[in-house]
Amino acid sequence: MENISNVDVKINTVNIYNREKMEVTGVVEVLSSTETEIIARIFDQIMVIVGKGLRVSKLVPEEKFLCIVGNINGLKYESKVNKKSFLGKVFK
Length: 92
Fold this sequence. Notes:
CATH topology: Immunoglobulin-like
Order of helices and strands: EEEEEEH
Strand order of the largest sheet: 1-2-6-5-4-3
Oligomer: single chain
Distance between the termini: 49 Å
Shape: globular
Helix content: under 10%
Strand content: over 45%
Radius of gyration: 15 Å
CATH class: Mainly Beta
Largest sheet: 6 strands, antiparallel
């Protein structure tokens, strides 16, 4: 039987309250944050949150927790983390 402490559990939950507050678990890092878009890395995926007046209200990296407030209009997952550098994107 495998020891449960050696298993890397990858759980991601999203709770949205009246489109004004969003709590996300499983967040490894916030890659970008503007008033209209927040991009976060969830394990090996990317989560893109769009809206108006968005801001990161709370980020606890040790607990993989993110809280966003603002007018939330949409949420999208992208399956792969783009590892191209800024210059790599400019000089396609």
